[in-house]
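Journal club side-thread
Mid-discussion, someone asked how the predicted structure for our own chain would compare to the paper's figures. Pasting it here so we can look after the session.
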Amino acid sequence: MLVTVEVKSRHVKVTGSRGTLERDFKHINMDLRKVGDNKLRVDLWFANRKQLACVRTVCSHIDNMIVGVTRGFQYKMRFVYSHFPINVSLNGGEVEIRNFLGEKRVRKIKLLDGVKYERSADVKDEIALVGNDITKVSLTAAQIQQATNVRNKDIRKFLDGIYVSEKGPLPERDLDEDLEDNTPLDDGDSTACKLLGAFLKLPLGPFTFRLLLVLVCFDFGLGSKDPEKIMNQAVEDMQNDLVKVRQSYAEITATQRRLMKQKEQADALADDWYKRAQLALSKGEEGLAKEALTRRQQQVETSEGLQIQIDTQATAVDKLYEGIQALEAKILESKAKKEQMIARARTAQSTQKVNDMLGGITGKTSMDAFTRMEEKVEALEAAAEVSAEMGSFNGKALPGSSGSSIETQFKMLEASSSVDRELEEMKKMLGDSSSASKKDAGVDDELERLKREAGL
């Protein structure tokens, strides 16, 4: 569905197939702008926790505006009463509530702009409030519920009122409407239809194309069995069941109270006929007294029959009340476990994805490619070392090698001249050491000769 969003000085305007919604966020110190064709960006610098919550609230408001102009919102409300039926009607732009708790006062609630009042066709005591702006729809529903709040009485016994039973976006078009839609396709769908028809080698019209799309969506949408969606749906179903059980409890309680009132009336009439029989007998009217006792006996039998029904209703009410308590406890337990189960399901899904990814790193994958490249580099290095050794075999350059260049020949000449100089220096050192040894030997001989002459 095509949605147009305009942003100007923190004023957002959203236009869709159902109409236009506008909202002003100038009271919030933030930056709000469009990023691309289908994104809005909300920036708030150096924000604390409350300001971050405010940013999330702004994003939720904009999301609700987009849903409102494309699908709309609906609040369903049901009537709960025990003895006096609640009458609700629409008079102009006001909702009128009559006979609440038997009161003659008429309660009037004005419908806000853009909110429509509808009477449910398949449910007896139910109305629906429909509109694009969720704020106005929910506020109207709250005003209707507050108008029928029971005051100064025990709310555990007096359950009369009008309560919200269901809320959320309007349901999308039914499957039958989608399948029966033979309107021309747009450019994108028309191209996809042609490509799919060419692939299947079958002529596809709008009806057949939409049927295939529905089947594909059904296969991939419902076949996934998302645990989070299933648990949310289960909790929602239990809450709907709780509303139905409470309505049944209210109806049975109302019936029981009516029976009790009828029994009280029968007992009172029986007492009256008994007193009349005594009066007639005291006046000597025996036939009239007998007729009064006959009427009294009829009222006594009626009272006894009503008492049997009251006892039966009391048992049913007790069981139903226990069922309500058990269902409420089950809902609370399910809500407490839901978050834990959702977290466990997400963890299991993440673990499965990681295991699948690690399991895919086998065979001819990136790890094997890395190993092959490492072996190839080592082979190139070994070939380079062998080439270097062959290029300088026995200090002589091989033909075609880099050692046959002029620079290499000069380096060899310089190396040979340095070796010659070192050899001459060693010879000189050896010559000096031999002459010194000869001088030392002559001195020793002369010293020995002097010792002999001295007679030593």
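Post-session note: The chain has nine helices and 14 strands.
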